Amino acid sequence: MWIKVLIVATLVAIIVSLAGGMLFLVKDKGKTERTAKALTIRIGLSVALFGLLMLGIFTGHIKPHGISPVSHSAIQPALQSTE
Description:
By secondary structure, this protein is mainly α. The chain has one domain (2-82). The protein has helices at residues 2-28, 34-59, 72-82. The protein is elongated, with a radius of gyration of 21 Å.
């Protein structure tokens, strides 16, 4: 459960950093380096998010699945009819 909270917190932090970068870009008009720093922080947070997702998958807290998962019971009759 704690990993999911960290993932959501990281997503929120990424959005805040992105909004901060946009605000600095509009407000400073490119005269300061605050935009670049905000976007650098966002990249670091994105890498951390990727790491948290991998940690969640490897520890079993997150179970990845396909876009439209097919149950094994639906596959078995199709395999038996071809034999």
